[in-house]
What does this fold into?
Amino acid sequence: MFKGKEPMSNEQEKVTGTEDFQSSTVADPYDLMKPLSTSIDENINRMKDTLKGDNTVIYRWMGNKHMDSFRACLVFIYGMVDNEDINDNLVTPIMQADLSELPQDTFLERVMNTIINNMDVKRCLYMDTVLQSLFQGETLLFIDGQEQALIIRSKALLLRQITEPEFEKVMEGPREGFNEYLAVNLSLVRRKLKSPDLKFKFKVLGRHSRTNVCLCYMETLVNDKVLGELENRLDKIDVDAMTGSNVIAENIKDAPLSVFATIGSTERPDVVVSKVMEGRIVLIIDGTSKALWLPFIFLENFHTAEDYYTEFYFSSINRLLRIISAAITVTAPAVYLAALTYHQEMIPTTLLVSIYSARQGVPFPAVLEVLLLMFSFDLVREASARIPSAMGQSLSIVGTLILGQAAVEAKFFSSLVVIIAALTGITGLMVPKLKGVYIIIRTLLILVTSILGLYGFAFGIIVLFIHLFSIRSLGVPYMMGIGSIKPEDIKDTVVRAPWWYMNTRPKMFMGKESRRQSMDSRKGKSRL
Amino acid sequence: MNKEVSSDRQIISMMTLYLLGNTLFGIGHMAKQDVWVSVLISISLIAPVYALYARIITLYPGYYLFEIMDEVFTPIISRLLTFFFSFYYFLTAAAITRTFSEFIHIDALPETPDIVSLVMMGLVIIYAIKNGMEVLGRWAQLFNYILLGVVFAVSILSLTNANLENLRPLLYNDIKPVLQVAIQGFFFSFGELVVFLSAVSFSKDRNKPYRVYFYSLLIGGGFVVLVVLRNLLVLGPQLVEQTHFTSYNVVGLIRIGKFLQRIESSVAMVFILAGFIKTAVCMFAALKGFQHIFRLEHYRPVAAPFGLLLIITCRLIFKDMMQIVDFLNYYNAFYSFPFQLLLPVAVWIAAEIKHKKKIQVTSATSSEG
Amino acid sequence: MNYKRVCCLWLIFIYLFTFIFLSGCWNYREIEDLSIVTGAAVDKEDDQFRLTVEIVNIEGGSNAKVASSIITSYGATMFEASRNAINILGKRLYWSHTTLIVLSEQIAKEGLVPVLDWLARDPEIRQTLNIVVSKEKTAHEIFHLPHPVFNVISFDLDNIFQNQGSVSKTPDGEEWKVLKNLATPGLDLVLPVALLFMSEGQLIPTFSGTAVFKKDRLKGYLSPDETRIFMFIKDEIKTGLLTNNVIQEDVPVKVTLEIIDNKTKMKPVIKGENIVMRISTITNVSIAEIEGRALDTGEEGSMELAGQFEDMLQEDIKNLVMHVQKEFGCDIFGFGNAIRMEYPDVWKEIESDWDRLFQSIEVVTESQVHIENTALSSKPIIVRD
It folds into this structure.
C-alpha cells in the first residue's frame, strides 16, 4: 500500500484522471437537497451536524493576510487527501494572496480562477453533492458570504500496485491487472483501445456505499437492446453496500438459482478489451479488481487469456483438455460407482478382479466410500485455500499421508477409489472458476447413480443439459456454440482458430458491425 | 398461444433421435432376413406421407396442427379431433415410457421396483417439457451428434462379427411377410413423426418443412437401416427373432482385443436418451392439445399432473414386455392408422380447399379494388 | 422466495434420500458380496445337474494374490444349481465374467437345450463365453486343481481360445455362435473338445479336436488334424501350419508351411439330378521349415512343392467329408446352408430329405497353394558333401 506522496516506483500509480463523478446523483430522503446558505457558520454547522461522530473530518478555518473580513473553511477527510498539495496549493495562496483587490461581485469566480492552484475546481450549490465529493476524497472550500462551495480535487491515491492477477497468470501476454481503483482500471482499458467508440458510462449503486459502476462498451458494436436491458437490471438493484462485483453479478443474473455463473469476470484489461471488441458490455466496479462482462457463454468458462497469446494449435488442445477435464471431474466418481455397484459386467475382467481384491475388508459401502473421500478431498482443498502458505506443508503431509496412504493401508478406503478421487480432484482444479459447480453436480450425480446405476446417471445428465440449455445470459443462449459443428460457431469456443480466420464477430452478440478484419487479411501476408 | 421457434437442424435432430429410439426393439420377425428390405419399402412408402405433412404446414406456417384443424373444421369437430389426437399422443408417450422402464427392469435392475425408475423418468420428463420445445430442440441437436456417433461406432465395431451370408437368400419366404413388415414399420416407426405437426411450430421464414422431413427421413431412416442390417449381419434372422432387445445383444458380442469389449451399456444409454426425446415430444404435443381444448393460457401448470398421470397410465396399458411386442406386431397398425394417415389426409384436403378459396377471395377483392 | 418452489425441491430431496437410505439395496450390490464365476463345468448325476464352478478367490493380506477355488452345487435345473451355491458360499454366483462352460459327454449326448436355454436367457451371462465338451469321463475333472502354471484356470483356457488363430486345431465355441448354428437350417453344430493330458507328471487341461453334433446331440469327435481340415472347408482358418512329406529324389522330406491367409469357397453345382459341392481353396503360405537338404526352393521348385501340398489338401478335404458323411451323417460343413443360399427353390424341395441326401453328396475339390516367401533363408541348409 502506498500513500500518495511517498516516492513512487511506478509512474502509473499516480493517477490524476479527469472523471466527473457528480453527473448522476440519487435523491436521498434527508434534507441534503436544500441549497447551501450564504452564511459560512450555518453551512459548517450543517456539515458538522450531518457528520456528527465522524472524527476524520477536518475543518480548517482560514483568514487572509490582506483582507481581515475574509473567513473561509477548508473541509476534508484526514487520510484521503494529499496533505502537501493542500498546504502548497490551497492554504498558502488563500492566506497569502491579496484578496481585497478582487471585485466582490465575481469574488468566488476570481478565487477559483486566479488563486487556487489546482487543475480541477468546481462550484457547488447543494449539500448533497458537497458531501459526496467529500467522501470521494476531495477538499471543500467554504467562503463566508458565498452561497456556493468549491470542490477541489486533492485525492491522495491509496492503491495497490498494478500486478499480474493471481488467478489469471499468463506466460506470454501482458502482465498487468486491475487494482481496486476505478480510475486506474479505466485508464488501463483506455490505453489499449484508443477509439472514440469506446464509451464509459457511469452509474452509482448502493444506497450507502454509493459505488461507482462503469459500463464499458463499443458504441458501434454493442446491441442497443442488450445494453438497455442491462441498464434496466442495474437500475433495479437496491442494495445497502456494493462490496464486490459478485453483488452485482448475483443481482442481475438471468437464472438466479442456477449453479452456473452466467456472467464472466476477469481482472485483466486485455480480456476486457477483447470482450468489448466482440460487442459485449463490461462492468468495471469501483473498489474491486474484478470486472464483469455480459453476455457470457458456457464455453467461456474454459477460456483463458493465455489462449490468445500462444499458438493456436496449442491453445486449442488446452481448451479441449479443460473441457474433457470438466467431463471427467463431474462424471468419474458416478461412473465408477455405477460400474462397481450396478454394472459389474462393464468392467474388464482383470480390472474387476483387482478391484475385487482391493475391496475385500473395506467397511463402507462403495457409495459412502466415494462420498466420504470426495468430502475429505474438499476439506483439504478448502483448508489449504484459507491457511497461510507457511502452514501449507503440514497440511499436505496430513492430507496425503494420513488421508491417502494410511487410509488405504488401514483398509479404510480401497486403493482404486483413492485413484478416482485424485483424478477427480486434479481435473477439478483445472478450471478454478467452476469448482463450486463441480462439487454440486458431482454429488448429485453420485446420488442418482446410487439409486438406478447408469440409468440414474443418464437421467442426471439429461436434466443437467436441459438446465444448461434453458439458461440464457442477457438473452443470449448460455450454451451457444455447443451442439453445432459449423466452423463459424466453434472457431472461438471449443477450439481457438488462428487469428486470421476469426474475421467476423460472434453472431450471437449481434454487433452492428460484424466484420472484424478484412477477409483477406491473411492473403496479404502469405504473398510475402 | 405462444410459439417457440426451433431451427431446422434442431427439428431434424429430434426427428432423427425419435426414429433411432425405435430401433431398441427388433420387431418384424416375419420377414426374417429381409427386414431391411421391408424398412426400405417403409421408407419409400412414408416419403409421400411426409410430403403431405410438410404440405399441411406450408399451407399454415407457424400453426400447430390443432390450430390448423380449428381453421379448417367446425369448432366442435376440431375440438373432438384435438382431443383424440392428444389422447393418442399421450398414450404413445405412455407406451414408450413403459417400454423403457421394462428395458431397464429386465436388463439391469430386476430387483428394483419399476415405479422407482418410472418416477425418475417422470420427473425428468416434467422438467424437460416445462422448459419447452426450444430447449429440447437444442438439447437434441447436441445429443444427436453424440448418439449417432456412438451408434455408428458400435456398428463399425460389430463388423468383426458380421457375416454377409446372414442376408441370403433374398426373399426366401415370399414377398408377403416382407410387405407386412413394411406396413408395420410404416406405422410403428416412421408414421409416428406426425407428432411433430403438433409439437413444433414451423415458422414461415425460418423453417423449410419439406427439407426437414426429407433430411430426417434420410438420416433417421438411414440409421434405422444401418441398425437393422447390423443386427441381421451379426446374429442372423433366427437369433434376431429370439431376442427382445436385439441391438443390446449385438453390441454385447463385440470383443476386440482384451479391452474393447463389454460396451453394450453405451447402447443402453443411447436408447435411454433417444427414448427420453420420444416421450418428451409426445408429451409436449399432448399437453399442447389439452391446452388448446381447454383454452389454457399456458400448458406449464398442467405439466406436472400430466407427468404423474403418465407414470400411472403406462403401468395400466401394458402388463409386460410380451404385450408390448404383441401390440406392436399385430395391433399397432390399426390403432395408428387414423392418426398417422386418415386424419392428416382429411386435414390436408380441407386445408387445400380453404386455401384455394382464400386465394380466390383475395384475388377477387384485389381485382375489385 | 417462491414458497411452492422450495416445497417442491424439498419433496424431491426427500424422495431421493428415502430412495437411497431406506431402499436397502434392490440392485445395489457391493462387488465383494459377489462370487465372480470364471468358469463352470456341468455334469449330470441322477437327474440332477452337478454344477462345478471356479470362482475368484483372494489369498493373503496386503499382498493379495488372485487365485481360484472350486465349488460344487446341485440342482434340478441349471438356475437352481446356481442359486443353491448360496448355501455353500453365502454369496450369489456372479456370471458376467464367466469365460468357459464345460459340458460333460453325457449331457452332450442327451441334448444341449436344457443347459443352453438358461445360458441364453439370463441377462447376466455374456454370450461371448465358450462352450466346450469334455472328452473325459466327467466335466468337472477339467478344473483339476492345483494347476501347475495358472492361477485361474478358466481365464487361461480362454486365452487358448483367443490365440487359437495361429494353431487352428479347435473350432470356435462362443455361445452366440452356438445358438446361431443350432438355429440355421442345413448346418449342424460343432463344439470344441476339452481334455486332460499328462505333462511332467501332472494333469493339465487343454483343448483339442472337435465334437460333432446332430441337432443338439453329440455324435462323435474329430481329431485335431481333421479339425484343421474342417476349418479349411469352413473358411475359418486364419493362420496355422501345413505339414507334408515331400518326395524329393525318392527320399521323403518333411516340409512345414505357415499359412498367411486362406480363402475357401463352397459352391453347390446342380448337375441333372445330382448336387455336387465344389470346394475351392486358395492358400497363401510361406515356407517355415524344411527338414532336409537339396530341396529346390527356386521358382520351379516352389511350384512343384506347392503342387504336392495342393494334392495333399484336396485329398484331405475329400477324406474328411467322406468320413463325416459315413460315420456321423451330420452336415457340419453347412452344405445344406450353401444350397439354401444359392438355390433357395431347390432347398425348399430337398429340405425334409436333407439328412439322407447329405450322405451321398459328391464333393469336388480344387486347391491352390501359393508360396509367397521362404522366410529368411533362400535355400535349405547347405551341408558340404
Remarks:
- Chain A touches chain B at residues 342-343, 345-348, 350, 448, 451-456, 458-459, 462-463, 465-467, 469-470, 477, 479, 482-485 (CB under 8 Å).
- The two ends of chain A are 51 Å apart (CA to CA).
